[in-house]
Design goal:
The complex is a heterodimer. By secondary structure, chain A is of the alpha/beta class. Chain A is built from 22 helices and 10 strands. In chain A, a hairpin with a 2-residue loop joins strand 4 (166-167) and strand 5. Chain B has helices at 11-48, 66-72, 75-106, 113-125, 128-138, 145-152, 168-193, 197-205, 210-221, 223-238, 242-247, 259-268, 273-304; strands at residues 51-52, 61-62. Chain B has 13 helices and 2 strands, in the order H-E-E-H-H-H-H-H-H-H-H-H-H-H-H. Classes of the chains: A alpha/beta, B mainly alpha. At the A-B interface, helix 1, helix 6, helix 14 and helix 21 of A face helix 1 and helix 5 of B.
Chain lengths: 458, 305
């Protein structure tokens, strides 16, 4: 009897330990990775000094330093891994630990982990400018002005992009990637139809006509003239392309004609129905890769995706790149884009090492490595464009290289601390218009009203 | 037990203490988990509901009831209350009735009853993400099977389901009924086993038909279970999140945004933990009221039986 009770008590005790260990496992890999509990505590007390002493202590002992970085969808694009590998090769005493999350959940999961103020992650690849502003507002990013001053770091290589990442007079990040919209097209489909390829100087009206012309077939073998993914950006971007408006405005009337055209394209059957894309959760890359559309406006990041897909033998058709169409009253080469910043967590215990890493990741050296992969960096240069253009799987022909140049660049969203909240509204209204629950006018009226509410304008 | 003697405790007292300790040892694993993952967060969200906090290291700021004023002044929040209630109305009764009918049918000794029971229970254990994705395709408005069947039956303009603001919640409710009726069927099956067969025998002798037996014996005898199922379903409906998140993401527009979706968005998109927690307290209050009804009801039923 007594023995049994003892055994039971022991087992219950073991279960407690199990539970605790399980909880611990979920929330504290950061600490064990950080290297020693004493350092963790110290780091929380005073991040910078602790970090520096921590670094030097490790360097002295020859121990391997671990730097943790956050990435999204690391498997599907070479954009992070190429730089990480290069850095590890250059710094054999540094080991980089990747914390990867799916793109959809990235901002949520990062936000929660930063709320815990743990020393990991050290380096943060910021998915969009809106979340950078949110993190900066919450003091979760380390301002890098001191590092810039100390190293006498030359920001002019970014040709103004770094200044775009300043917020409230502080620099929070370096521009890692720069992406803008271009028009992809399927050369084989154009050849088969005997239609000339899209030119680098095309108005949106000409593009609509071309989309209609390139639509053919019925049912499951139907080829659409173009493809709009479900993002609101694929309508609103063109409304802000001329640089006269942003997506945070007191009156959204300027978007009317753009929404009318998008709805008309859909109703004419020249692009796939929004409802279908939404309900079947169709990714834009599969539509282009399966040759279901002749053209597709998309960001330059898709070049790397296509090159990887060709390299892996997933696709083998001929494709091309053209400049994104432009509004009738602007010249060719006006585009819309966004930066991907790379920043340091305010809670890092490896501030110096983290700075060294982000400096490398946004250096000219890294830019070359990335250009090989078809990735554009924050350093705009003809050399980078030429590297990308000379990559084996980049489409041949001068017009494709020309397409990578732009004369004017607008940000897809302005630097507004409430932009994430406003985007929710933009997305909701976009959906309602595209599924015909709202007329364009109703949608834009609601947009005007709700954004004004968020901004406190009324 | 051992014959050792101590001067402080009698052997009876010692046995009692030892038994208690054993008992505590058994509940500790669960208690620790519950405290860490449920109790402390719940208390924390009560605190947060009167604070202004963005999830950062900055100190929270006491704002009193401003968060509640904030959310009740928000048209979207009031909308989520309406959506949640309409979801509950469309889900609770159909689930309950179908679960009962299934249970009664599958309580018979028919061939392959185990297979049927498994088949109806299966949706309950299926992953909600997979369920949502598959049903979304079934509900595809232009060539999805559901609308193809409706068109075949002569319906000219079948609803556009999840991409129609008036039908999206209906679509979510249908999936919910399909998914959860199997679980409540099991609850009813268990209760059915508890009804004495002598009641049915007596009724048969009196010449009652199957329908009368169901209506005058089965249903009344199942009242406590029905009450339990009703309460559990209602609470579950007010807490709905995952199915909506997977199927519609709260859309189109915000036509299917429920209370919990709102709380989630406030907390993890806008990082406004104050209003989010205030929303959670409102949900807590609703569930508490339902639970209190259940408690008082339970007393009544247990007295009756």
């Amino acid at each position: 009897m007594r023995k049994k009770q003892l055994v039971a008590a022991l087992m219950a005790g073991a279960m407690v330990c199990g539970t605790l260990a399980a909880c611990g496992g979920g929330s504290t890999p950061a600490e064990s990775q950080g290297g020693g509990a004493d350092q963790t505590t110290a780091a929380q007390a005073d991040q910078t000094t602790a970090a520096q002493s921590g670094d030097s202590a490790k360097e002295a002992s020859g121990e391997k330093q671990v730097l943790s970085v956050t990435t999204w969808d690391n498997d599907s694009s070479p954009q992070f891994q190429a730089v990480i590998d290069a850095y590890e090769e250059k710094n054999p005493n540094v080991e980089i630990k990747i914390i990867d999350t799916s793109a959809d959940e990235y901002n949520n999961s990062l936000g929660i982990s930063l709320s815990a103020a743990q020393p990991d992650p050290d380096v943060i690849w910021v998915k969009d400018m809106g979340s950078m502003l949110q993190m900066a507002d919450k003091e979760q990013l380390m301002p890098i002005d001191d590092f810039i001053a100390k190293d006498n770091f030359d920001m002019s290589i970014y040709k103004g992009a770094a200044e775009q990442l300043m917020y409230n007079g502080k620099a929070y990040a370096l521009p890692y990637r720069n992406d803008w919209y271009v028009l992809y097209y399927n050369k084989d489909l154009f050849d088969a139809a005997g239609v000339e390829y899209p030119s680098n100087d095309m108005t949106w009206e000409e593009y609509y006509e071309l989309a209609a012309k390139m639509t053919s077939g019925e049912g499951s073998s139907k080829v659409y003239g173009s493809h709009n993914h479900t993002w609101q950006a694929l309508v609103t971007n063109w409304a802000v392309q001329d640089g006269k408006h942003t997506v945070v405005e007191k009156d959204y009337g300027f978007m009317k004609s753009w929404y009318e055209e998008a709805v008309a394209l859909q109703d004419g059957g020249y692009i796939q129905d929004y409802s279908t894309l939404k309900t079947a959760n169709i990714h834009y890359s599969s539509v282009f890769k399966n040759q279901q559309c002749a053209m597709m406006p998309m960001g330059t990041w898709f070049i790397a995706t296509m090159m990887q897909s060709q390299a892996e033998g997933e696709t083998d058709f001929n494709w091309g790149v053209a400049t994104i169409p432009h509004p009738a009253d602007t010249e060719a080469g006006y585009t819309v884009g966004a930066l991907t910043p790379i920043a340091i967590s305010a809670f890092t215990d490896q501030a110096d090492l983290a700075w060294d890493f982000i400096k490398f990741a946004s250096s000219e050296e890294a830019a070359e490595i990335l250009a090989d992969q078809g990735v554009f960096t924050g350093i705009p240069s003809d050399a980078a464009i030429n590297t990308i253009a000379s990559a084996e799987l980049f489409p041949e022909g001068d017009s494709n290289v020309e397409a990578l140049k732009y004369v004017h660049y607008s940000f897809d969203r302005p630097l507004d601390p409430q932009i994430e909240e406003i985007r929710t509204v933009l997305n909701e209204v976009h959906e309602m218009i595209m599924i015909h629950s709202y007329s364009v006018d109703e949608g834009l009226a609601e947009l005007t009203e709700r954004v004004a509410e968020i901004k406190g304008w009324n | 037990m051992s014959g050792e003697k101590t001067s402080f405790l009698t052997s009876k007292q010692r046995r009692k203490i030892r038994n208690n300790l054993t008992g505590y040892a058994f509940i500790i694993p669960n208690l620790v988990g519950y405290t860490v993952f449920v109790f402390i967060p719940v208390i924390f969200s009560f605190v947060l509901s009167v604070m202004s906090w963005d999830g950062s290291q900055r100190p929270m700021e006491f704002v009193g009831l401003a968060n509640f004023a904030d959310i009740f002044g928000d048209k979207i929040f009031r909308g989520t209350l309406v959506h949640t209630v309409s979801y509950a109305l469309m889900t609770v009764l159909p689930t309950l009735v179908l679960a009962l009918l299934l249970a009664v049918l599958l309580n018979n000794k028919i061939k392959g009853v185990a297979i049927f029971r498994t088949a109806f229970y299966f949706p309950y254990i299926a992953s909600i993400v997979a369920v949502g994705a598959v049903w979304n395709m079934l509900f595809q408005p232009d060539f999805g099977p559901v609308n193809e069947i409706l068109k075949f039956l002569g319906l000219k303009n079948p609803p556009r389901w999840v991409v129609d603001k008036d039908w999206a919640m209906v679509a979510v409710s249908i999936v919910s009924v399909w998914k959860y009726m199997g679980y409540y069927m099991i609850v009813y099956l268990a209760a059915l086993q508890g009804i004495s067969s002598s009641l049915y025998e007596a009724a048969s002798i009196d010449g009652a038909n199957g329908w009368q037996k169901l209506l005058y014996i089965t249903v009344p005898m199942l009242t406590p279970t029905t009450f339990f199922v009703l309460i559990m379903l209602t609470i579950q409906c007010f807490k709905v999140f995952d199915l909506v998140y997977v199927m519609t993401g709260g859309g189109p527009g915000n036509a299917t945004k429920t209370l919990v979706n709102y709380i989630y968005e406030k907390a993890f998109t806008s990082w406004e933990f104050g209003p989010a927690s205030a929303g959670a307290i409102v949900l807590f209050a609703i569930v508490l009221v339902i639970t209190l009804i259940q408690f008082s009801g339970e007393k009544k039923w247990s007295k009756d039986l």
